[in-house]
Design a protein that fits this description.
single chain, 128 residues, mainly beta, four-stranded antiparallel beta sheet, globular
């Protein structure tokens, strides 16, 4: 069983930055690929970013590429999402997810079906 707890959400103005954090339980965190997804009101959940076991490979949705950065600290069982130049369309509930069955050290999947555990989410609201 893996528990994921997100933090760092809140209300910001367009153009500002915010950092989300996700802390995971489990002894083998360094073997999980990790991802961030989001669900905006009235929309389906969508991929945001993912990072491989040791952080050597990252994957981003086109909508956030160049603005968001995913990173991880395996010593602290933590994955971060640094968000810059936020836009009102980034408003959503952001979820952290763990892919504990990632086959390759470079795996950083965009498919939500590849992820086995999910956090409860943290709300990000960007005002215009």
């Amino acid at each position: 069983q893996v528990q994921l707890v997100e933090s760092g959400g809140g209300l910001v103005q367009a153009g500002e930055s915010m950092r989300l954090s996700c802390t995971a339980s489990g002894r083998t965190f360094s073997r999980y690929a990790m991802g961030w997804f989001r669900r905006a009101p009235g929309k389906e959940r969508e991929f945001v970013a993912a990072i491989s076991w040791i952080g050597s490979n990252t994957n981003y949705a086109d909508s956030v590429k160049g603005r968001f950065t995913i990173s991880r600290d395996n010593a602290k069982n933590t994955v971060l999402l640094q968000m810059a130049s936020l836009k009102p369309e980034d408003t959503a509930l952001y979820y952290c997810a763990a892919d504990i069955n990632a086959r390759l050290p470079i795996s950083a999947s965009y498919r939500d079906t590849d992820y086995d555990y999910w956090g409860q989410g943290t709300q990000v609201t960007v005002s215009s």
